[in-house]
Amino acid sequence: MTMSTDPWVWLAALLSLFIFSYLYKDNPLFKFAEHLFTGLSVGYLIVIYYNNIVRSYLLNPVLADHRWVLLVPFAIGLLYLFRFIPKLSHLMLIPIAITLGIWNGIALPLTIEADIIRQMQGTMINTSMFRNPWDPYTGLAVGILIAVGVICTITYFFFSREHKGALKVSAHIGIWFVMIGFGASFGYTVMARVSLLIGRLQFMFTEWIHLIK
Amino acid sequence: MKKNVPLAIVLVLGVLFAVQYFVPSRLSQRLYDTTLEWDIIISIPALAIAVDSLVRHHVVRIRQRRKGWGYSWVYLGAAAVMTAIGFSGGISEGGLFMNLFTFALAPMQSTMFAILAFYMTSAAYRAFRARSPEATVLLLSAFVVMLGLIPVGAALWRGLPGLSEWMMQVPNMASKRGITFGIGLGSAATILKIILGLERSWLGGSE
Predict the structure, then answer these.
(1) Cβ neighbours of B186 in A, within 8 Å
(2) How far is CA A140 from CA A118, A119, B167, B168, in A?
């Protein structure tokens, strides 16, 4: 059995083993890797943020294209730093308010369209469903099943009235749909994690210790 | 005054950008693009606050010799080294910065997520015991989806991948759609409360 001579591969393999060691129990090697990971992530994000945001949106346009007007939003952003002066810390609320106002204004129609109107549109029975009513994906039967599922799921989360009578039946059907949904999502997520695990083991056995060729 | 000005800014900008969505003109689009660019620039100094908060937390931990304070040195050292390498050597492919990303950061991240497979399985064992019809449905649904995604599933029964796909596309979608609908109504209500100044927790303090 041969092993890799590349120091980078050794670094990746050892750090992966440090993280895997948590499966036994919490230990200093895992804690070291955990803090190294968060520290490196912060450093990485600072550098990427500087390159992608600070340079692209502020330094280059101002210094190279002389768009001095961009210093105005930067000056507004500097109000964040009044956080460090307790007497004037309320000034920090100005940039927060601007960001909150802009994003809430943008998000309101988008949320209504994407999460409410489009979902209603997708749930409605349409004429194309009658062409092949028993198609397992686009047929009328499936359309009815989805419509029933959506309405029952919503009633399960409707707490403004006591679940009695028809509401109780509907909510009970709703929980079955919710359970199928959660189970499917769980299964899908587990498989994604298992696929990552296989990827790590493959790396160890092929690139590090050359056990698999 | 200290709180009224920010509330007024949120109200004016919130209404302006909610209306902007319905105005299909070049001027409206320019307003949208410029404001987004300005907002990105406004957020730049907030990075200093984020870094200050993280550094302060670890410096205090080291100063007070709290449990595990030595690891704070690892954290601060790693952040400082990565930042210094990025600023001095650049972020081009094949450089030290990107090698640290590829051979230290990325493997640790995927291993962190990979070990979750074990914890999810043990959690599932405890949670999925078929104690009620609903728990049995959850168990079966997860089982069918998992088996449908691997070759063994198709070897056991040819129809399993199709059933797994159908469960993802039909009953799963129905429940997700119902939940999304609820999230949408809740989000829209919360956004309206913030724009109208009824939700004020972001102002801090007792309000």
Answers:
(1) none
(2) 19, 17, 17, 18
